[in-house]
Amino acid sequence: MSGIHRRSLLVLATACGLAAAGCDSGSSGGAASSPAPPPSATSAPSVPPPTSAPVPSGETAVLWMDGFCGAVNTFVTDNNATAKGVASSVNGKQLADYTAILDKALTSLAALPPAPVPLAETAKKSFVDKYTAARDQLVGAKRQLDAAPKSTAAQGKALDAYVAAQNKSIEAVDPVSPILASPELMQAAGSAKHCRPGT
């Protein structure tokens, strides 16, 4: 079986996994040679129902969690839609499109209000770091692809970079799991619209 054919099967499996897999807060992306099927954006983590018990800076925490969940879940939805167009190879436009959805997520995360508790900032940083690493990998891959003569080898390298960047970006898909240790953030997640299942 040729290297290109193996990569074709790899990306087809990745694209199918994006559309069908369930959300698992403990999942992590694998190596480029065996990418883990990313969770579907239609499945969301369970969060506690809203309560009336007052918490410090409650409204601030809800606002922050709503923006945080919105940024991450929108990225997962965009990721699912983008990956459906990837088959046996990728071109410069597909690399640029995936870079764009990562930039969109990073912009949304950067626009969040000040973190209501230190753990919120830690959770945000974990997503920012993964998205940034994936984006930088795609930018480098597109630069190399644009500079190289059209060939099977150049396409193969671009495809490998695409899959590796995708694996990196989907290592974190559950915006709620990183804040489980914070009662305030967990309560805020229960009231935040974009943290609820199906949103």
Write a brief structural summary.
Keywords: Signal. This protein has 199 residues and is mostly helical.
Keywords:
199 residues, mainly alpha, 6 helices, elongated, signal
Structural overview:
Helix 1 (3-20) crosses helix 2 (58-83) and helix 2 (58-83) crosses helix 6. It contains six helices and no strands. The protein is elongated. Helix content is 60%, strand content 0%. The chain has a domain at 58-83 and 91-195. It has helices spanning 3-20, 58-83, 92-110, 118-147, 152-169, 183-191. The protein starts with a helix and ends in an 8-residue tail after the last helix. The chain has 199 residues and is mainly alpha-helical.
Total number of helical segments? 6
The Rg value, from CA coordinates, equals: 18 Å
Principal-axes geometry comes out as elongated
**Count of distinct strands:** 0
Poorly predicted ranges (pLDDT <50, ≥5 residues)? 1-56
Helix content: 55-70%
The main β sheet shows up as: none
Mean pLDDT: 75
Structural class: mainly alpha
CA(first)-CA(last) distance: 42 Å
Order of helices and strands: HHHHHH
Question: In percent, how much strand structure appears in the residues?
Answer: under 5%
Signal peptide: 1-21
Keywords: Signal
Biased composition (Pro residues): 35-53
Region (Disordered): 27-57
Indicate the topology.
Blueprint: H1 3-20, H2 58-83, H3 92-110, H4 118-147, H5 152-169, H6 183-191
Helix pairs in contact: 1-2, 1-5, 2-3, 2-6, 3-4, 4-5
